[in-house]
Queue: 2 jobs
Job 1
Amino acid sequence: MVDFFTQHILSFAIWLPILAGILVLLTANDAKPNQTRWLALLGSLASFAVTVPLYTLFNFADGGFQFQEGFQWIASFNINYHLGADGIAVPLILLTSFTTVIVVIAAWEVIEKRVAQYMASFLIMSGLMIGVFSALDAILYYVFWEAMLIPMFLVIGIWGGPNRVYATVKFFLYTLLGSLLMLVAFIYLFHQTGSFEIVDYYRLPMPLHVQVLIFLAFFAAFAVKIPMWPVHTWLPDAHVEAPTGGSVVLAAIALKLGGYSFLRFAMPIAPDAAHHLSGFMIALSLIAIVYIALVALVQKDMKKLIAYSSISHMGFVTLGFFIFNNLGLEGAIVQMVSHGFISAAMFLAVGVLYDRVHSRQIDAYGGVANTMPVFAAFAVLFAMANSGLPGTSGFVGEFMVILGAIQVNFWYAFLASFTLIFGAAYTLWMVKRVFYGEVANQHVAELKDLNQREFLILAILALLVLGLGVYPQPLTDMTNATVTQLLSHLAQSKLPAGL
Amino acid sequence: MTMQQIYLAIPLLPLFAAIIIGLFGKFLPRAAAHVVTIAGVGISFVLSAYVLNHAMTAAPYNETVYSWLKSGNFSFEIGFLIDRLSAMMMVVVTFVSLMVHIYTIGYMAEDKGYARFFSYISLFTFSMLMLVMSNNFMQLFFGWEAVGLVSYLLIGFWYTRPTAIYANLKAFLVNRVGDFGFLLGIGLVLYHFGSLDYAAVFSVAPQMADTNINLIGNASWSLMTVTCILLFIGAMGKSAQVPLHVWLPDSMEGPTPISALIHAATMVTAGIFMVARMSPLFELSSTALSFVLVIGSITALFMGFLGIIQNDIKRVVAYSTLSQLGYMTVALGVSAYSVAIFHLMTHAFFKALLFLGAGAVIMGMHHDQDIRNMGNLKKYMPVTWITSLIGSLALIGTPFLSGFYSKDSIIEAAKFSTIAGSGFAYFAVLTGVFVTAFYSFRMYFLVFHGKEKWREAHHEDHAHDDDHHHDAHHHGLSPTDNPHEPGWVVKLPLILLAIPSLLIGYLAIEPMLYGDFFKGVIFVDSEQHPAMQELAHHWHTIFHSAAGMAIHGLLTLPFALAASGVALAWFFYMKRPDIPALIQKRFATIHCILEDKYGFDRFNDRVFAAGSRLIGSKLWLIGDVKVIDGALVNGTANLIGKLSRVVRKLQSGMIYHYAFAMIIGVFFMLSFYTLKF
C-alpha cells in the first residue's frame, strides 16, 4: 500500500482533489452548506497532504524527473499517461495544493450561493493544474492545460462581478488563440519525432528558423498566461470580475503555468531560438517591469492595482529566464513561489475589505487602521513584501534576478531596479490611502477587525512570506540541480550539424 | 557563554522583545511593554560593552551564522564581523537606544500606541545591530532596508495625521531612490568580485583598481569609481545627503524619541558607517571620493543655512543633523574615515541629547513646538536647560567638549586634503562652523532665555506648517500656566547623554584617530590621500595630547567663528530682536529661497511625483486602454464581428445571390488557371 502510494504520488496529487471535488458535487445539499464546506476542507487538506512527500522524498542531487509513472494511453498516436516532476515542478505543485486549502478556508462563509459548485471548481482546478505541472506527455499536458480553464471560467462567470461576461470572453479568446498555436507546435513536433514524449523533443535537432517558429507558437500560449506585455490586458479585467478565491488562484498559480511552461517547453525544445530571441524577451520583460509599474501607480481599483503589480512582478520571472544564468533562473522560480504567497495574501486582503464594504475602490476607504488595527498590520506586512523588502519573500527573487541581470548587461539591472522605487510607490501609496489617515466615512467607522478564520489564513501566509524571506535556501536547494541541468542543456546548440 | 553566543544574543534580545510586545502587548499590562524591551536592549548594551572591551585585545571575529541562499557558484550568508568598528557602533547603538527606551516611558506615557512604540524601537535596534554587525553586503542591505522600514513605521506612528503619513511615504520612497543605486553597486561587486563577503571583496579589491567596464557604448569607466558612486548613492539616501535629504526634515513628524534615536544618532549615520566600512574600495577611486566630498560639503553648508530660519524646535535640530551628516561625509571624502566615525560617535551622543532635550521642552510646553512661543525656560526646567546647553556647546565645537575634537579634526583634515574639491570643502566646513553656532544659539536663547513669550502668544499661529492636526498632542501652554520639567525617566537619559557629550571626545580622540584602534579595519592610501597622515603629524608635533589640542583650539579660526556665531545670535535675539525682522525684509529674496528649502520639495513633487503619475496614467489610458484593448483586442473582436456580418449577408437564402456568387467564383478560378498555365 505504501509502495503503491510512493510510486504514484503524482497521480494521487492530481486525482485526489478531482475526486474530492466530484464527491463534493455529488453530496451537495443546499440545506447543509457546512457539510459541503467541511468535506471540501478535508478534501483539500488530504490533497495537500499527499503532495508533502514530494518534498520529503525529493532527491536534491538529481536534476532530472523524479516520481515518474505512466502507462500507454492511446497507442495509435503513441500518447502516454506519463507523469514526473523535477526541482522546478515540485515547488509549484506544493504551492498549488497549499493554495487550494487557503482558498477553501477563505470562501468559508463568504460564498453563500452554490457552495458545492464553488468548492468543487477549486478542488478540480487544483488537480488539473498539478496535472499541468507534472505531465511529461505533450497531449496529456495539453488536456490538463485546457481543462483547467473550464472551472476558472465557471468561477468567474458564476461568482464574478457585474462585468464578468466581458472579462470571461476576453480571457477565453486570449488564451484560446495562444493554445491553438501551441497545439500546432505539438503536432509538428509529433511529426518529426513520432512521439508526444516531451523529453524526446529536447533531443530533436532543428534549424534555427524552425526553432523560432516553434518558440513563437509556445510564446503565444505562455506569454498570454504569465502574462507578458502587451498581451496582459485580460488579467486586470479577469481579476476585477473574479471572486476572491478566483483571483487568488489566478494570481498565485495560473500565472505560473505560463512561467513553468517556458522552462518546460519553449526554452529547452528551442534553445537556439531562445537565445536568438532573448533580447526581444528581455525587452518585453523590462517593459513589463517599468511600464506596468507606472500603470499600477494610477489605478483606482485595488484589485486592478494588484493585478498590474502581478504583471510587473512576472516581468522579473521572464527577465530571469532569458538572462540564462543560475541567479536569474532560480531567482525567477523563487519569484514565482513568493508571488504565489504575496499576491494570494493581497487579494485575500482586498477580499476582507470587499466582504465588509462591497467596494474595491481605493477612495471608498481611508483610515482603516483605526478600526481594523490587526488587519492593517497584516496589510502593511504584505505591502512591504510586495515592495520587495528584505526579510520577506518578495525580496529574494527580485534580488537574485537583478544580481543575475547585471552580469549580462548593467542596463538590464538598471531598468529592473526601478521596481525598488515604483513597486514601493504604488503599494505604499495604496496603503496610505486605504489604511492611514482619519476614519474616512461611515463604512470605515463600522468595520470590524479580522475574524478568526481571516486571521488564520493571513497569519499562515505571513509566516510563509517571512520564512521564505529569512531562509530561502530550502527552496533553492530544491531547484539547484534542475536549473543547473537546464542551463547546460540550453547552452548546447540543437542546430543540425552542417547548418 | 561563548563569544559567538554573545554576538547572537546582542541583536536577538531586542528582536525577541519586539516580537513579544508586538504580538502580545495588548494582552499584557502596559508596564510590560517597557519592562520587556528595556530588559532586552539593556542586556544588549551590557553585552556590547563587553564585546567592545573584548575587541580591544582580540582579533576580529568573522563567521557565518547560517547560509541564506545558494545559487550556482554564488552563496549568500548571514554572518557577523566583529571588529572594533562594529563593536564601537554596537555600543553607541545600544546605549542611545537604551536611553531612548527609558525616555519613552515618560514621553509616550499617555499615548494609546504605547506597546506598539516600544515594539518598533526594539525592532529598530535589532535591525541596526544586524546592519553594523554584518560581514557581507547582502546582510548590510537587509539591515539597511529594515531600519528604513522601522523608520517608515515610526514616522507614520500617528497614522491619522496627514503630514505624518505623507512624510513616512516620502521617507521610504526617497530612501528607495538611494537603495536603487546601492543595489546596483552591490550587483557590480558580486559580478566583478564573485562574492559579497567583505573579507573576500576587500582582499581582491587592489587587483581590480585598474579594471574598466563599458557602460555606454565603448566609453570605458573605472569599475571602482562606478561601484563606489553607486554604493554612495545608497548612503546619500540613508544619511540624507543633498539631493536625497528631503525626507529628513519631514521625518520630524514622528515622535521625538525616534527623532533622537533614528533620525539623529543611529540610522542616518548608517551611510557614514557603510562608507567607512568600505574604505578599501573607496580608497581605490579618487573620483568617487571627490564626489563624496562635494556632496558632503554642499550638505554641510546649505542645510546649515536652513537651520537659521526654522521656528519649529525639532526642525532646527533636524537641519543641524543634516549639516553634521555633511561634515561626516566631508571627512569620508578626504579619506579621514576614522574622523568621520569619531564624529559619528560624538554626534550620536550630543545630538540625541539635543533631541531629547527638545522633546522635554515640547512636553513642558504642552506640545507646542514653536520656539517663538517659548523663552526663559531655564527657570522652570533646569535639568533640561543645563543638558541642552551642554549639547549645544558640544555641537558648535567648544574646546574640551566632544564635538570640538571631532569637528575640528574634520576641518583640519579638509584643510590638509589635496583631492579635487577639497578647497570648497574647507570653505564649506569653516563657514558651517559660524552657521552652526548661530542657529544653535538662536534656538538656545529663544527657548531658555529672554521673555516668557507663551504668556502673550496667540496659539492660532503654531509653528506647525499644517493646520490639520488638532489632536491632543498640539495644545500648547496657556498664558497662565508654568512649564514643568518632566520626571526622572526623562531627566535621567538627558544626564546620562550629557556626560559623554562632555567627555567622550577628550577621552577617545587619541586612541581612535592616532592610536591603532582602527588598525586593520579602516584602510587609507596615504600616498594618494595624505590628509590623515598630515593630521597625525600635526598631532604628534604640535598638540601632543587632547588637552593640547583644546588649548591650541582656542586660538584658531574655527573657535573665533563659533564664538562670533554665538555672539551674533545673542545680539540678534536677546539684545535687538528687531534686527532679524529687518534683515528678513531687506533680503526677502534670500529669505524666500530658504523658506522654500531651495525648491527641492516643490521640484520633486511637480517633476518626479506628478511626472510619474502623469506618465502612468498616459501609459494606462493610451497604451493599455486605447491601443492594446481598443485597437488590438476589441478591434480584433470587432473585425470578426464585421466579417461575420458580411458573411451573414451572403447567406441571404436568395437563390440568385448564390448563383451570382457561383458565377463570380467560377470566373475567378478559370482566370486563375488560364493565367497560370
Job 2
Amino acid sequence: MSKLQRKIYSYSFLVPAAIVYIIIFIVPTFLSFFFSLTRWTLSDWEYIGLDNFITFFKEPYLSIGFRNTFIYAVVTCGLKVVLGLLLGVLLTGALRIKNYLRSVVFFPTLVSTIAVGITFSVMMHPTTGLINETLSFFGIKGPDWLGNPSIALLSVAMVDVWKGVGFATVIYIAGIMSIPEQYYEALQIDGGGSWHKFWHIILPLSRPATNSVIILAFIGGLRSFDLIWAMTKGGPGFSTDVIASIIYKQYQAGFYGLSTAGNVILFLFVSLLAFPLSRFLTRKEVDL
Amino acid sequence: MSRKGRLLTIEIVSVALSIILFWVPLYFVILTALKNPQEAARMNLDWPTEIRLWQNIKEVFVFRDYMLVRAFWNSTLLTVLSIVVLTVVSSMAAFVMQRRQDKASPWISFFVLAGLIIPPAVVPTIWVLNGLGLFKTMTGLVLVEVALGFPFCVMLYRGFMGTIPKDIDEAAVVDGYGGYRLFFQIIFPLLKPVTSTIIVTQAVVIFNDFVNPLYFLPGSKNVTLQLTLYNFTSQFISKWNLLFTDILLITIPPLILFIFFNKRIVAGMVAGSVKG
Amino acid sequence: MQRKSIGMILACLLLLAGLLSACGGNNNGNSGGSTSGTNGASEGSSAEKKEKVKLSLLVDNSQDSINIGEALSKAFTEKNPHIEIELETRPQGTEGDNFVKTRLATGDMNDVFFYNSGSLLQALNPEQNLLDLSGEAFLDNLLESYLPVVSSGGKVFGVPFRSSVAGGWFYNKKIYEEHGLSVPKTWDELMANLDKLKGTGVAPIIGSYKDTWTSQLIVLADYYNVQQAEPNFANDYTANKAKYATTPAALRSFQKLGETVGYYNEDLLATTYDTALAMLAEGKGAHYPMLSFAVPVIEQNFPDLIDDIGFFAQPGDDPNKVGLTVWMPDSAYISANTKHPEEAKQFLAFIASVEGAEIISGVTTPSGPFVVKGAELPDDVPQVVKDMMPYFNAEGQTSPALEFLSPVKGPMLEQLTVEVGAGMRSPEDAAALYDQDVAKQAMQLGLEGW
C-alpha cells in the first residue's frame, strides 16, 4: 500500500468508535475475568479464587439453565430457518398479495419485546386467555401454556419465533432476489418443475442467507433474556431459566461477583458454540 | 388443479393464517385498550359496551405525574442521540476497515466481530460507567447503545462499502481531496441506502431496548418507555385496559417508521447484509 | 492535508463531545428547573430565616407506600416550611432490592429511603452505607422489641413508617358460614376444612404464584410454630448449626406447604396478588395465606366486602399453642452520603412520633399495632384487624418472622416455594436446596462461620 493511501485511509477514522467500543465493551469484558474471582460490592472487592464458579456450578438449577438455553436457541433458530425460507420462497413467488404478506410478517419485529411478552402471556392465560377460550369453543381443553413446566419454555420459544421470523424472512427474500436470472432461465430450458427449482437452485444459492439467519438467530437465542423475563421470569420454579436470567437474578440479589462469574460462563458457552459454528458454515460456503 | 387455482388456494390460506396469527393479537390489544377495567379483565374479543380509548389514554398519561411523557422524551432522546453517533462512528470505522488491508486489519475485524457474539459483561460495565461518572446518565446509556450496536452497523456498512469502486477514491485524491473530505463529501452520501436501513433497524432496536435501560439507567426520573411498560405490569394490576393502552401508544412510533420505510428495509438488506 | 485531517478529527470529537454534553446538560437543566420551582413554591414562608433545604425520599411504587410518603412529607413540610421533600419511586420485590443495593453501592442513594427491616436491611451493609442514629432522642419513642430489627453492630439505623404486619390466613367468613366451618386451631383442622371445600366450586386456597413472592407465605408464617418447638432455631441457623432440611420442626413448614398441593385455584400459576385479593373478597376462594398489609388494599378496592374477611394465625399441631408470626414494620433510613443529615433526622423524628403514626393511619388502614409508644389503632379498624389483636394482646402469642431474627435469607426461596406449592418438587428436596441457597447468601455477605 502506498504512503498516500495510508494517509487517506488513516486509522484516525477508527478513533471515535474505538474509544467508545474499548471503554464500554472491551475493557468490561476483560475486567469480568478478574471480578468473577472476587466477592464484590462495586465499591470494594475481596479475592476469593474460584469460589464463585464453584457456587455457580453447584446451583441446582444451573444444569436446567444450560439445557434450556441450548434448547431455546436450537428450537427458535431451527424454526426461523425453516419458516423464514418457506416464507422467503413464497414471498418472492407469483403471489399477488406478497407485499401485504411481507408487511404483516415483518411487523412484529418492530414491536417491543416487552409489549409482545405481556400480550401473549395474557392470551396464554390458562382459563381466561384467548387461546384456551378459543380451544374450549372447539371442545379442547388447552394446557397451561406458561404454567406447565414441561411446555412453558416451548411456549415462550413460539412467541420468539412469531416475533423474529419476519427478520429471517427478509434476509431470505434478499438472498433469493439476488440469485441471478440466468439460473432460472437455464432451468426453464431444462424443463424442471418448481420443486426442482427450489431444491437445486434456491436452496443452494440462498446459502449465504441461511448462514446469516443461523448465526444471528442462534446467537440471539443463546443470549435471549427479555422475552423470557417479560413472560415467565424464569418460572414456574426454574423451568424456563436460561443462563442470562440466572445472571440477572444473581445481579438482583446483589451478588455482583457471582453474577459476573455467570457472565464469564455464558461468554465461554456462547463462544464454544458460536465460533466453531460460524467457521463451519463459512467453510461450507467456500466449498460450494 | 390448475396452476391458477393452486395459486388462489395458497393466497386464501396465507391470508387466513395471517389474520389468525397477526391481526387477532393486534385486534386484541386495540380492543382491550378501548374497554373499561371490568370488561378488559375478561380478556376476550367481545366488543366493548362503551368506547373509552380517549379516557384511557388520558389516565395513562396522567399516571404517576406524567411519567409516560417523560418516558417518551427519554426514549426519543436516547434513540436519536444513539443513532446519530452510531451512524457517524461506524461508517467512519467501516470505511477504513474495508479500504485498508495490512497486518492490523484481521485483528481489528476480529475484535469488532467478536462484539456480535460475546454477551456484554454487565456488572463490570456498570462499574466502569460509575467510575467515569456516567452510570445512570443518558450519556452513559447512549455510549452503551453505541458500543453494542457498533459491530452490526460496521458489518452492514462494510458490506455496502465494497460496492463503491475504489476508482472514486483515486479520482478524488488526484483532485486534491484528503481522507476526511473524501469520506464526508463523497463516500458518506453514497452510503445513503445502507444508512437509512441502519437508521430504521437500529432505531427500532434502541427504542425497544429493555435490557440496557434496565441495567444502566435505573430510577424513575429517567425511565424509558420499555421500563414504564415493564413497571406498569405490577402497578396496573387489574387495570388491563390501561396496560394495553400503554402498549398501543408505545407501538405507534415504530409503526409510523414502518409505514414510511417498509420498502427501504428489504432493499437495504439486499444491498447490505447478503453481499457483506 | 495533514492539518486538514487533524482538523476533521477534532471536529468529529467535538461533535461527539457536543452531543454528549448536550444530553448531560439536559440532566442538569432538569434538576435546575425543579429547584427554581421550589423557591417559588415556598415564598409564602419568607419569614423563616433558615436556609431552604430539599430532601429526596425514595419509596416503593405500591399505592400504599406512596400515600404514606406523600402524607408524611406534606405534614412535615407544613411544620418545617424550610424543608421540602421530593418523592421518588422504585419497583417492588427483588427488582426493588436490586435498585436500592445498586444506588447504595454507587453512592447516590436518596437522602431518606423506605425499605424492609431485618435480614433485607442486613444485606445492605448498613454500617457502611447508612447514617447511624444511635443516641438520638426520638429512638426512645420506639418499642424495645423493634430496635434490634433495624440495628447492626450495635448501631441503630431506622424508624418505622408503618404499623407491624401479621402473616397468616385470610378467610372468607361467608364461605365459612355457608359450609358450617369454624376457625381451625390445629393444622389438621385446617386440612379438614380444606377437604370440605374441595369440589364445591370455590377454591379452598387461593394461590397467586404469578407474583412469586406470595408463594412463600405458608413457609414464613409458620415460624411461630418452629420457634415453639425449637426456641434456639434462629441463633443456630445464623451460626450455621441448624438447617431447614435437618430440623424436623423447620422442615415441617415446607411439608405444610406440600400438603396444600391440589387445593388451589386451577390458574394458580397465572394469578396475580391483586386478582387473588379480588377472589377472596368476592368469595371465589375461601383462604388466602398472606401478610396483613393486604387489608388496606382490600378495603380500598372492596369497601363493601371488607367485613366478610377474617384472619387467623397459621395453626401448629397443638391447639393450646396457637400464635402469630409477625413482620416488623418497614422502616425509613438515612443514606450515609446525605448532605443534610440534620434535616433528615428531623424528618425521621417526625415519622417516629405519635403524630407521625396518626398521619399514617389517616391514609392507610393499619395492618397491626404500631411500634411507636403511645400510638393507638383507630377504633374504626375493620374486623379483620381486630381478629389479630388477641394474639398481640396476650403474652407470648407472637413471634417475629425468621427474617427479623437472623440476617440470612436466601433469594431463591420464592422459586422453591412455587415449585412445592405447584407440586413440582418435594418439600424435603426444596428445604435442602434452600439450605444451599442460604449458604450462598451467607458466603456472599461474608458472614462468620460459613
